[in-house]
Design a protein that fits this description.
By secondary structure, this protein is an alpha+beta fold. It has one domain (about 5-100). Helix content is about 55%, strand content about 15%. The protein has three helices and five strands, in the order βααββββα. The strands form two sheets. The chain has a three-stranded antiparallel β-sheet.
């Protein structure tokens, strides 16, 4: 079961799109770093998109009974993890994959 909130499903969709576009446009003989490139572009996209979406201000309402402020804010998560955190995981994965090529 896949769980997301808001636009969190983009964590899975954006890398698939980048992998498809790079795979379709890259020459089959020169695809050494195509997966790493697609994942790094996905990480950059997810970082900025996640920061923008999750950094948006919430809507402040006042409870008439207690006069307390209640903030309603949209969350954009994938498996309860904010979108921008997946960008860090993808960047670490890219570093690992590139380091494998040098050994």
């Amino acid at each position: 079961m896949i769980v997301w909130q808001g636009l969190g499903f983009l964590v899975m969709l954006i890398p698939i799109i980048f992998l498809g576009v790079i795979g379709a446009t890259a020459d089959m003989h020169h695809m050494t770093y195509s997966i790493e490139t697609a994942l790094m572009l996905s990480a950059i996209t997810l970082w900025f998109l996640g920061k923008k979406l999750n950094g948006a201000p919430g809507k402040i309402l006042i409870d008439p009974e207690t006069n307390e402020e209640v903030v309603f804010k949209n969350k954009h998560t994938f498996f309860w993890i904010p979108m921008e955190w997946f960008a860090i995981a993808m960047a670490i994965t890219v570093i690992f994959l590139v380091s494998i090529h040098f050994t």
